[in-house]
């Protein structure tokens, strides 16, 4: 799948190995996702369009300034997608943050939209969806559908720490134009739709809401 970009960076592999560990505490889990978000964002933003703007002066010579062309939207999927926001904001401080809330129903495993803070009319030129995990692919597909219906016509990108092979295949089959920048791809989903070995429930591990 040419639209799937699995990281080969040793730092990403190292940090995901710690992230997987069931003994990793919520504070470190949050910090690791922030760091992984930084590393994956470097790859995901490599082809952002730029434009030449005003003429400025360095200590030695005049030069033409370069800026990002177009407005970038960051779309964290609540709640775990919030873990990537600060990492991306640091790199793209001019980005707009557009929140979507989608949860996976426990029995049917189907995505359910419960929160949508998109403006009535698109106010960005392209979007980067922030979602630490793509398991069954249902939430990712629902997100792309919402964004396309909203009016996003340009390429949509995902940044995710861990994804299942099946989830990526389903997303690509439905939306082959969507690019995914992923830290690691796992081959198995269990009967409850969790990635194996995966990360567990990213939201629970981020915010320490795991029930004993």
TrEMBL record:
Keyword Nucleotide-binding (UniProt): yes
Pfam family, one: UPRTase
Family: Belongs to the UPRTase family.
Name of this chain's protein: uracil phosphoribosyltransferase
First and last residue of the signal peptide: none
Upper taxonomic lineage: Eukaryota, Fungi, Fungi incertae sedis, Mucoromycota, Glomeromycotina
Domain of life from the UniProt record: Eukaryota
Enzyme Commission number: 2.4.2.9
Pathway: Pyrimidine metabolism; UMP biosynthesis via salvage pathway; UMP from uracil: step 1/1
Entry keywords, A to Z: Allosteric enzyme, Glycosyltransferase, GTP-binding, Nucleotide-binding, Transferase
Entry's Gene Ontology BP terms: uracil salvage
Domain (Phosphoribosyltransferase): residue spans on this chain: 7-209
Originating organism: Ambispora gerdemannii
PANTHER family: ADENINE PHOSPHORIBOSYLTRANSFERASE, URACIL PHOSPHORIBOSYLTRANSFERASE, CHLOROPLASTIC
Cited Gene3D superfamilies: 3.40.50.2020
Cofactor(s) recorded in Swiss-Prot or TrEMBL: Mg(2+)
GO molecular function: GTP binding; uracil phosphoribosyltransferase activity
A GO CC term attached to the entry: cytoplasm
């Amino acid at each position: 799948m040419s639209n799937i970009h699995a990281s080969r960076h040793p730092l990403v592999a190292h940090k995901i190995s710690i992230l997987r560990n069931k003994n990793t505490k919520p504070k470190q889990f949050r910090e690791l996702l922030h760091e992984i978000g930084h590393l994956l964002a470097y790859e995901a933003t490599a082809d952002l369009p730029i434009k030449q703007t005003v003429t400025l002066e360095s200590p030695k010579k005049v030069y033409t300034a370069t800026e990002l062309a177009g407005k970038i939207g960051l779309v964290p999927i609540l709640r775990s997608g919030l873990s990537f926001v600060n990492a991306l904001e640091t790199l793209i401080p001019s980005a707009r943050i557009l929140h979507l809330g989608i949860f996976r129903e426990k029995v049917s495993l189907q995505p359910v939209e419960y929160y949508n803070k998109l403006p009535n009319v698109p106010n960005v030129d392209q979007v980067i969806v922030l979602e630490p995990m793509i398991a069954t692919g249902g939430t990712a597909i629902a997100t792309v559908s919402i964004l396309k219906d909203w009016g996003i016509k340009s390429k949509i990108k995902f940044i995710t720490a861990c994804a299942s092979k099946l989830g990526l295949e389903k997303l690509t089959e439905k939306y082959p134009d969507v690019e995914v920048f992923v830290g690691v791809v796992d081959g198995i989903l269990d009967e409850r739709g969790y990635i194996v070995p995966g990360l567990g429930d990213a939201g629970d591990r981020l915010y320490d809401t795991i029930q004993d």
